[in-house]
Amino acid sequence: VTAPANTAPVVSAANRTAAKNATLSLSSLFTFADADGDQPRLYQFYDATPGSGTFRLAGVEQPSGQALPLTAAQLAQASFVTGLGGADALWMRASDGISWSEWVGFNITVPNRAPIVTASSATVNKFAAPNVNTLVSASDPDADPILRYQLWDSSAAADSGRFILGSVAQEALQVIEVTAAQWGSLSFRSGSGTDSLSVRAFD
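Given the sequence above, the corresponding structure tokens read:
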């Protein structure tokens, strides 16, 4: 008895954009076709982007950098949870129980917009020490929390002002990194003349 040759299935997957921390069912990310009318029996998924989004099986996070095998029954319990920004490079293939399809790659991209910092020039009394958070504000168009700030004091003269973190004066002409928890304890003690300051925020 000669059985007809098996034709390997074909899977298709398209790049897509998703929100941060979104849970996407794996079954929604691809289509399966088989010229012989065979049903899918096995799957393999691969996450080539460590440290970002993750595969989940029955709610349990799966490691990146290695193939995630799934049966047809397990597919309904599998999902991909997106990260906080950037693109995840994913791969997958399917089997009809005899032959595997080719690996298909696709990206899931989470847009991230940079925070917006607003600061205005101010005139203060000599040796005044206003909190920096009264001079600078930051917002995020994606509603992400601001995690840290970086500041720069371009005025290195001995009689110029200095950033004060807690009670410690910070040197000029170097990046001063401040966490969101420290932001409320950062002040600027004015000196003589004009100080040129810069700040940026990170989400």
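The two ends are 66 Å apart (CA to CA). Try to locate this feature in the token string yourself.
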